[in-house]
From TrEMBL:
Keywords: Hydrolase. InterPro entries: Aliph_Amidase/BUP (IPR050345), C-N_Hydrolase (IPR003010), C-N_Hydrolase_sf (IPR036526). Residues 6-310 form the CN hydrolase domain. Transmembrane segments: none annotated. GO terms for biological process: putrescine biosynthetic process from arginine. PROSITE patterns: CN_HYDROLASE. This is CN hydrolase domain-containing protein. Pfam families: CN_hydrolase (PF00795). SUPFAM superfamilies: Carbon-nitrogen hydrolase (SSF56317). One of its GO terms (molecular function) is N-carbamoylputrescine amidase activity. It comes from the Eukaryota.
Length: 344
């Protein structure tokens, strides 16, 4: 019996600071992905211009536009309908006096399925998003598109040295996890593997806010889509970035992950002079158990494409017992900020 098959794509390109040029590039690459058979196509975060959050400049608020009637969303709706593809569209949203880092989900018939607003907002040198964005108020949403149930996230990354440390830790753990998985399946069952993975998973949870992934998976989804603007970290071994991004969402929840990042050098004038970020690229598509299937480099534009049988993945997810063995009655401490006085 033929299963539910989906063909996904991650795009990657260098942005200029001209909206028309960037939207034209996005459309060209969407068409290229469609030409390769893709029907869910992911464009990188805030692709209409430079990553302006390097600086706190009040003039940059003029880049925000209301959700309804947004010209780039309207254009992507027409494109999605023409090609019969799903396109998530990232944009800087103005909502009365509030502003959000948002993403609209466009279905294959051009219908706008709704909005997700980024929930966790970073603040630090080069990533001063709290100056521009309110914390999202939409909650974590699963969108039922023509081809798959998808969840979207906008990644909140720590500073590069923390990324590097976590990536090195994850890379070391990968081979141990594979060995442990094999042993536990033979002698202790999958729940033994799950408990050990939960231990490692908790070590990075505070940096990646992976509660988003748990909530999305509890709502039953087929694919996780992640968009980001992440800079290069000198000395970061290859393929550390993809290993780090793919390991925990995939191995823990047994769900494919599609990640899109930008490339290129962007210079923004700040109150302290010029700020420069070189974006890391390395967009990728990972399979349901953390395996990297397709990946781009750190310099060139790319159109990554791969296919999944969602029914086969669903059976694998159920066989791992991850959701069977959860104990939500013990997790109420997660509803506190300091870990004290949970109402157990």
């Amino acid at each position: 019996m033929e299963g539910r098959r989906v063909v996904v794509s991650a795009l990657q390109f260098a942005c200029t600071d001209d909206v028309s040029t960037n939207v034209n590039t996005a459309e060209r690459l969407v068409r290229a992905a469609h030409g390769k058979g893709a029907n869910i196509i992911l464009i990188q975060e805030l692709f209409e211009g430079y990553y302006f959050c390097q600086a706190q400049r009040e003039g940059f608020f003029q880049r925000a536009k209301p959700y309804k009637g947004h010209p780039t969303i309207l254009r992507m709706q027409k494109l999605a309908k023409e090609l019969g593809v799903v396109i998530p569209v990232s944009f800087f949203e103005e909502a009365n006096n509030a502003h959000y880092n948002s993403i609209a989900i466009i279905d294959a018939d051009g219908a706008d399925l709704g909005l997700y607003r980024k929930s966790h907002i970073p603040d630090g040198p080069g990533y001063q998003e709290k100056f521009y964005f309110n914390p999202g108020d939409t909650g974590f949403k699963v969108f039922h598109t023509k081809f798959a149930k998808i969840g979207v996230g906008k990644k909140f990354f720590p500073f590069p040295f923390i990324v590097l440390a976590l990536c090195l830790f994850n890379s070391l753990c990968r081979s141990l996890i594979e060995l442990l998985h094999s042993v536990c399946q033979q002698f202790a069952g999958i729940s033994g593997f799950q408990r050990q993975l939960e231990l490692w998973y908790s070590k990075v949870q505070k940096y990646y806010f992976t509660q988003l992934l748990l909530v999305l998976n509890l709502k039953i989804l087929d694919l996780i889509l992640v968009i980001t603007g992440s800079e290069s970290c000198k000395g970061m071994p290859e393929p550390i970035w993809t290993s780090n991004m793919g390991l925990f969402p995939n191995c823990y929840y047994v769900v494919p992950l599609v990640a899109s990042n930008r490339v290129g050098k962007e210079i923004i004038e700040t109150e302290h002079g010029k700020s420069e970020i070189t974006f890391y690229g390395n967009s990728f598509i990972a399979g349901p158990t953390g395996e990297i299937i397709e990946t781009a480099d750190d310099k060139e534009e790319a159109v990554l494409v791969t296919h999944f049988d969602l029914d086969v993945i669903k059976s694998k997810r159920h066989s791992w017992g991850v959701f069977r063995d959860r104990r939500p009655d013990l997790y109420k401490v997660l509803l506190t900020l300091d870990g004290s006085n949970p109402q157990l």
